[in-house]
Write the structure tokens for this entry.
Amino acid sequence: MIAGHPICIVQLPHKMKFLRLHRAPFVLLAPALLAFILIPRANAQQNRITRPVDNLERVTLPGNLYPKATPANDRGRVSPSLNISPVTLTFAQSASQKADLDNLLAAQQTPGSPDYHRWLTPEQYADRFGIGQSDLNQITSWLRGQGLTIVSIARSRTWVAVNGSAAQVEAAFQTELHVYQVDGETHFANATAPSLPAALAPVVESIRGLNDFRARPLKRAPRFTSTTGSGNHYLAPNDLATIYGISGAWNAGINGSGQKIVIAGQTAIDLSDVQQFRANYNLPVNDPQILQVPGSPPLQIIKADLPEADLDLEWSGAVARNAAIIFVVYYNDVMSAVMYAIDNDLAPVVSTSYGSCEQETGSADALIFQKWARQGNAQGITWVNASGDDGAADCGDAQNPGLSVDVPASIPEVTGVGGTEFVEGGGQYWNATNDANSASALSWIPETSWNDSLADGTPSASGGGASIVFLQPSWQAGHPGVPQDGARHVPDVSLSASADHDGYLVYTGGQTQVYGGTSVPTPVFAGVLALVNQSLQQSVSGLGNVNPKLYSLAQTNPGIFHDITTGNNIVTTACSKRAATCANTAVGYNAGVAYDSVTGLGSVDVWSLVAGWNGGTTVIPPPPASPTVNLTLLGNLTSMTAADTVFLTATAMGAGGATPVGAVTFTAGTTALGSVSLTGSAGTATATLAVEGSQLAPGSQTIAATYNGGSSAVTADVTLSVQATGSNSNGVPAISSGGLTNAASYRQVFAPGMILSVFGANLASSTVTAGSVPLPASMAGIAVTLNGQSVPLWYVSPTQLNIQIPYETTVGVPATLAIDNNGQVVSSTFLLSSAAPGIFSVPQSGAIANGLPSGIARGQITTLYLTGAGAVTPSIATGAAPSSTTALSALPAPILSPVTVTVGGVPSPFLQFVGIPSGLVGVLQVNFEVPAGIAAGTQPVVVTIGGHASAPANLIVIN
């Protein structure tokens, strides 16, 4: 049972001023359900470590040597002090667990089954398919005994990660780590197979991290002129939407809202590149959320990886433009980012554009990746991966010049995405000029297989072929066109991938580039799956392994796919001059009717896929009439001087609850002042522009805001009086030393979305509290910006402001706060962390401020409120609060994990609710259970979010 209880937050001196009364969700559980959650359940697993661990009795682990770490490339031992991290031990499943998981994965994709689309949590996966806690304890105890440090333990109890010096790692696993020179790069790897005590052999399957060879980004270099075809057409987001029917989904209101996509990466990025890409093509403001995997080395920009990260983030968000894009990054090891994203169940779709050929990956690593994919599928996660850019010879080198495919795409539980290329012939498929969104495509364009190898002088073609590691899955067996050779074949689907004809526009490194390769259609297809998931959100929170469904749809509803029947992925890999048995032989496959090992099932019409996923109609509806939009314009000043700044806020409200998208243009007479993208939700969006008085002519000025995204252009205006000179009678505003603090804790720690208190003098001429949400951009002539972005206001007074830090603010780089008090400006610079939790408490006692009785018994549920939780999902506009109609499960919650609460140093065994309740802005509510076994009296409460701990607040525990 769920009930709402009114909570009154007291208005405290020098604290954030809340609305006087709001209703916040306080979750009550029926006694039977409460008992089920609180009563410990027995482990389902049998203990498989049945004898003492003896370091002298060892077992060698097969498949744990990297194929390119050969004696010819060996340059000797590494330094004993070299830090090796992470080294991950993957645990083996018992035969019964493997069979049980096979059955579950099949049932989860079988309509009518009791388990159909019933996804597991990581903890449920652990109880059913992980190792037992006793076995885990013995393994971690042995690892610590070898001097290794435990970095993390999987929530699913399927792996443990450690680090240590090379000497410690060598001693623990009785191997040698050597330096290797391969393809002009220096790496380390184990020179001999690792071993473990025989007692651990039943539960440890393989070891990852004994080398630093990494998957490569699967992108093709930028090209600015076509080398094939006619003309220089480059793909903007709306071009792709027209060609592949994505606009049909958008017209039906399916744009990614409420969905999440993980992009896995291994480099830092410059967030401004993604922001500029979205601004260039009039996409709504929607910054990706950057989540660094705990334990990752400090992030740096890797030049070879930056374009990959940017194009993945930009094009997944260009398709699912309202989805929360989460960039999960582990420095220089993208697969560790994938492992973390799946084990923490971060999103229903995970996209990677990295890979390596099977022959040069090592069978142990390939099977480890499959274990992750199977866990993800059981949790409802779909993993999409690029099929490769070297045609049918994926290794692309003299060591393995023949047929080969790319992993992870070759894993049956992963969807491999290949490449096509447009063939216009004599048809008219493009407008002569671009529209306002830089698009010119008129319709779908006929396609062939992507293969630009001849023009490029190097293998440049859709990866595809037969796996040598993975067997043919049941949904490929007997499917038309799939070779019946017992092997898994890739790709599964394809989309345009040519950098030559026609490449994708990508903003990276501060400029627009044009890229291709299967790297790009992969995040595009991830965005497509987010649209499918949104269309089913009433009953589905994930799709799991979509491959069985795709192959079924290709037979029952073939109109969803564009069957690519021409072209090939035949390439020639040059031999090394020293190779004695190699010949420059062309290898590959031809496209054909139905499935082929070049483009798979073909490309997709997205609206047909969305509409037909569950047997619905696939007739593409005509675009609906653009919604009617009402526009209002307000400024924080009515009179100003040339030295003043006015903040103009245009508010667009869509009819029928549709949220307006696009940009608002501001003008003063015939003078253009600027254009700002709208941002918002729930039918309302705003755009704020700062205008200097020096930009305006003296006298009465009419400022107009114009929006062209509705059924017709709408305009609103405001009149300003511009004086030659002016002054602020209140005096120059000033910020006190140390005057920027967390509004709850007073600590000088800051995070996106946090309520920030600013203390000083002459900050405002009067005291005003916001009376409603969304919060206003100005009050009493006060306006605030952070890095030039308008900041919403909770409360203003001469000595204190309470404001919300925009969620879009970049972490880890200086942020400049500017306060404008009727033309007089003061600024200050500070740094943000990914989270900075502070608990609201009563100043005199330090007790948590929740309006509930001050004393609480052990085992009972109580509530606290905090700010500084960092980025949340689903994302919410800065200054906005969740609607009162939002479902409890859909309220925004921290993207960082885990969220923990301790009372008196003892972890709370149960967090009943963690989220932003309706009516509040930037404030997180946590309902937690007071742990049993702690002493009565005043106990400190600490909340930790993603490793960031709050200052303690007090809780009185009673008997």
Q: What stands out?
A: The chain has a mean pLDDT of 86. Residues 363-378 form the longest helix (16 residues).
